[in-house]
Amino acid sequence: MTVPREIAQPTGDKTAAQFSVSPSTFQSPISSSSFMASALAHRSAPKQLKPFNTEDVKILLLENVNQTGQDILRAQGYQVEFLKTSLPEDQLIEKIKDVHVIGIRSKTKLTANVLREAKNLLVIGCFCIGTNQVDLDYAAQHGIAVFNSPFANSRSVAELVIAEIITLARQLGDRSNEMHRGTWNKVSAKCWEIRGKTLGIVGYGHIGSQLSVLAEAMGMTVIYYDVVTLMAIGTARQVPTLEDLLAEADFVTLHVPETPETKNMISNDQFEKMKTGSYLINASRGTVVDIPALIKASRSGKIAGAALDVFPNEPAANGDYFTNDLNQWGEDLRGLNNIILTPHIGGSTEEAQRAIGVEVADALVRYINQGVTTGSVNVPEVTMRSLTLDEPNHARVIYIHRNVPGVLRKVNEILAEHNVDKQISDSKGDLAYLMADVSDVKQDDIKNIRDSLDSLSSRILTRILY
């Protein structure tokens, strides 16, 4: 039995590439006592749809993607290139030209200008929560799926925020800096326990809700604001407006995405509404807080301290880059008392990075080998049960296309000469994703199906796994 292969036609005028794989056999016990069980196992075992000679799948991993992700991808036999750093745009464009998969974290910027050169790219893996570093619309319109890890580092970020709350309340950063300079300054003025204080969480998602549980366990009262109504965990309470939260909270922590609506959502007006002597923590996105307004509120004594893990502009590599050349207010911010500044390390724990490596790498393997898009942030989420080992002459047709009237009719006319065992289609805005398993197909049939689908005006990308 041969392992399935793929014919994939990238967008543009490039000729479709055909890839083959080495034969593979299925071995099972044949003793009479286990014959029936092994036969059933044979029939129900999933058929591995490996789309290329595995060594022909080129993967580029940047920014020190965790070893767990590397191991999963290499175990498939893919050709994996690993770099510890991000790349400048000119080097990235050169590297991305021939790869089928790219894995990044938060520093690499996959703009339209970069993606335009990625003629063979099928999928992007963001080994982090955010995807704002990728031009998602351009990727979708060119049939490039994008996956991320929205949950895996939630605990790590929540624990960091708890640590920062205590550090701010006790002014530990200032005392530590003083001791490093040789100054003994034992004080209790304006140092507080966090028990009995009110924590205001802006954004009650995966991180915010975990933080809520930890804060209550520390004896804090928790309130939260979100743009949607969400069920509270424990004794937390949702408030109707951001202003209500700011007026009540002793500590305000932000856990929102980067959108036009959240840009500078905490600025001069919001600082005025906060309690005098309160604290601000931002471990979400750097554009959410108006930093000059924060500096003003800190200098005036309106807020007693702040912790920032994210910034509007962040360096592409480690080094002495957090200066006014990067952000014009950098030195002013660094000169403030009781301000914790950390280099975007909210999810930087061994546990989180291992979990992210597994989650994103598994999603990439499912997409490359089976065409399953569950968890994608920019294309419709489509899944279909695996083919089994008793379906040797089947092919999985994947047709990514513009969502215009009449496409399904034309696709089904092309597939009509074959038995369609199962089919699913979904759309997301102007983009649609169709997957169908057809039986009793031969090499010539597969070529004809591919050529016919490629000729449709709605086509973005055709993939056939077999």
TrEMBL record:
Catalytic activity from the UniProt record: (R)-2-hydroxyglutarate + NAD(+) = 2-oxoglutarate + NADH + H(+); (2R)-3-phosphoglycerate + NAD(+) = 3-phosphooxypyruvate + NADH + H(+)
Keywords, in A-Z order: Amino-acid biosynthesis, NAD, Oxidoreductase, Phosphoprotein, Serine biosynthesis
PROSITE patterns: ACT, D_2_HYDROXYACID_DH_1, D_2_HYDROXYACID_DH_2, D_2_HYDROXYACID_DH_3
This protein's record includes keyword NAD: yes
Chain residue ranges for the region called Disordered: 1-20
GO MF annotation, one: NAD binding
Domain ACT: 396-466
Keyword GTP-binding: no
Documented EC number(s): 1.1.1.399, 1.1.1.95
Superkingdom: Eukaryota
Enzyme superclass (EC): oxidoreductase
InterPro entries: ACT-like_dom_sf, ACT_dom, D-2-hydroxyacid_DH, D-isomer_2_OHA_DH_cat_dom, D-isomer_DH_CS, D-isomer_DH_CS1, D-isomer_DH_NAD-bd, NAD(P)-bd_dom_sf
Pfam families recorded: 2-Hacid_dh, 2-Hacid_dh_C
Pathways involved: Amino-acid biosynthesis; L-serine biosynthesis; L-serine from 3-phospho-D-glycerate: step 1/3
Gene Ontology biological process terms, A to Z: L-serine biosynthetic process
Function description: Catalyzes the reversible oxidation of 3-phospho-D-glycerate to 3-phosphonooxypyruvate, the first step of the phosphorylated L-serine biosynthesis pathway. Also catalyzes the reversible oxidation of 2-hydroxyglutarate to 2-oxoglutarate.
Family as reported in the entry's similarity comment: Belongs to the D-isomer specific 2-hydroxyacid dehydrogenase family.
PANTHER family reported for this sequence: D-ISOMER SPECIFIC 2-HYDROXYACID DEHYDROGENASE FAMILY PROTEIN (AFU_ORTHOLOGUE AFUA_6G10090)
Protein name, UniProt field: 2-oxoglutarate reductase
